[in-house]
Write a structure and sequence with these properties.
This protein is an alpha+beta fold. The chain contains 6 helices and 9 strands, in the order E-E-E-E-E-E-E-H-E-E-H-H-H-H-H.
């Protein structure tokens, strides 16, 4: 995986389940030295190219919450795995997503992560804390690129005999974008440092993901406004960024899920 010879996918989301562990319907039934997986996963990134899947499945039907979910490493060459059509998305065309269907897929019991049932969703949440900081960092990088392009255009584009960057209302959009970008960058660095120190960063990771993804969307929107008609057509690339960054507010937990996590953690810590 580190060398790029093998691509993996994280298979958590389902047609009726994403952030809600209680709705997870994919099952894993023990059969001797194997588990038999049945169910459908949705919007799985890199699935068409993946050689390995991390699959969340319910091993305890009696437990409807997160405690009944386990995590498995699944070789995509295993019989019983099929794929839906590649999704047609608003943006991020360079990354393929699709449904992954398990129909009697046999997975060795040794592939149960942690070798203990019921740890799957907890494992997923550990990954998501890091993933949310990572997505926030991506948002910072993309927003910086968008702002650089918008600033360059504003300094070159002339109206009324001077560059539009000299107009105060354009400057306000540039300044607001730079301010929010700096704030998001500081949040990411602080949260990453705390995680490196081994501290619980559930709240900080959600704060980063929430703010940085919303920030990136605002920066992209202002960039389209600064470029005007040129920002709406495909020639300058800004319209592509505008479409691509919209998903940042959705995956790894929507903005609303981050708000819930932050508030619940605050209440718990204050109790």
């Amino acid at each position: 995986m580190a060398s790029g010879e093998l691509i993996s996918s994280f298979a958590l989301t389902e047609p009726e389940a994403g952030s809600d562990a209680a709705s997870l319907r994919t099952t894993a039934v023990r059969d001797g030295d194997h588990y038999v997986l049945d169910g459908t996963k949705r919007f799985i990134t890199n699935a068409p190219q993946a050689g390995l899947l991390t699959v969340m499945a319910r091993t305890d039907p009696a437990s409807k919450g997160a405690g009944g979910v386990s995590a498995f490493i699944v070789d995509t060459r295993s019989p019983g795995i099929s794929y839906g059509r590649i999704d047609r998305k608003m943006g991020q065309q360079g990354v393929h997503t699709c449904d992954v269907i398990f129909d009697g897929c046999r997975v060795p019991a040794a592939n149960l992560i942690g070798l203990k049932e019921g740890q799957g969703f907890k494992t997923a949440m550990k990954v998501l804390d890091k993933g949310r900081i990572h997505i926030a960092a991506v948002c910072v990088g993309v927003a910086q690129r968008i702002l650089d392009d918008a600033l360059r255009y504003a300094m070159e584009r002339r109206q009324f005999g001077r560059p539009i960057a000299e107009f105060e209302l354009v400057q306000a959009m540039l300044a607001d974008s730079r301010t929010e970008l700096y704030a998001a960058q500081c949040m990411v660095v602080d949260a990453a440092r705390r995680r490196d120190e081994g501290r619980n960063v559930s709240t900080e990771a959600s704060c980063c993901k929430l703010f940085a993804s919303e920030m990136c969307g605002r920066v992209a929107d202002r960039a389209v406004q600064i470029l005007g008609g040129a920002g709406y057509v495909a020639d300058h690339g800004i319209e592509r960024f505008y479409r691509d960054v919209r998903v940042f507010r959705l995956y790894e937990g929507t903005t609303q899920i981050q708000q819930i996590i932050i508030a619940r953690n605050m209440i718990r810590d204050a109790s």
